What does this fold into?
Amino acid sequence: MAVRTPSAWQVAAVAAVIGCVVGAGSASIRATFTPWQIGTLAPRVTDVPPDAPRAEVPETRHAFGTIGTGESGSHRFMIRNAGGGPLTLTRGSTSCSCTVSDFESDEGGSQDAKKVVPPGGETFVTVQWQGKPPGGPFRQQATILTDDPRRPEVAFVVEGAVVPVWRAVPEAIVLSTLSSSAGQRASVTIFTYGQAAPEVESISIDDSQAAQFFSLAASPLSAAELAAAKPATGGFRIDVDVRPGLPLGRLRHTVRATFTMPEQVVAAIPLEGNVGGDLVLAGPGWDSSRHALMLGTVSGRTGLRTRVFLSAKGPHRDSVRPTVQTRVPDLIEVTIGEPAPVGSGAVVRIPIDIEIPPGSRAVNHICSEQAPAGRIVLATGHPDAPTFSIPVCVAIGP
It folds into this structure.
């Protein structure tokens, strides 16, 4: 008798039926023996006594917006006990920038740092965090352990952005065309990112002798200016008025603004420039970009001798007769020559010989943070620029 071979459609239909039966059975077995999870939930459908606690959390995530670097924030999360027995809570792990409070005995917890919530009751857990530099997006987590068999742990998440506490625009006050005989005004804007608007306490400049040439004032920013600078939450403007009479040469100071928001903050803004005028220095070793005489390392046995020139122009050029006021280090010898007109006489040039004598002792004024510059200060006789300071970068060795 001939055997009929099943068609391809019959084979496919039988395979589909067998696959559905096997798949359903496998799924049923997994559902019976494997707990299912949704987020931080891991409930079991069996073996939960009716008097077991039940943790319910209305909120597990808090978006705090922005926080300044170094500032702290906190948020209270609620945990309810909807079960039939007491719910015990214990602190779990936290991210490096988060802490959890309310568990010590003086915070509402027990001596063993646990909290017990009766059936139908509720409690709060405070998660605290700190904005750490350099800033940027922030997402941290704190875990609370429970004795609810359906939910053995609860993960609370806080997220937002860490921003600088303050920002200066521009980053430095640069007085590029400053003249000793004329005043000038400059300004800098301080934007703040705290939870409260800043209250300015004081504004000062770091050099008490130079302070007489500066007038500093602060004024709050308008609502429109703040709206255009989001996410800044506050700010103020510092106006710097420079009076005539600053000594010629390089200007380098720091303006410090002290304000509260509500913590006290000190903003330091560099103030830089070159004070120009009728007097200009030139010669070997003179670095106009650094505004310093770069003598480098000198042997104390042989010493060093160099010459620079002080040029005077303008209507008071003939009254310039420099004399030495200050020498640091005092072993530097300074000899000032006679003025001589240059060309048509519109400029007068004065030679200045600077010598480190042989046999000088070792000193270090190489113009570093540890070894500040030496200096030669001249009294000029010029009515608008009565002194002229020459920073000297030198280290004298054996």
In short: The helical segments are 8-33, 223-227. Confidence is low (pLDDT under 50) at residues 14-18, 20-45.
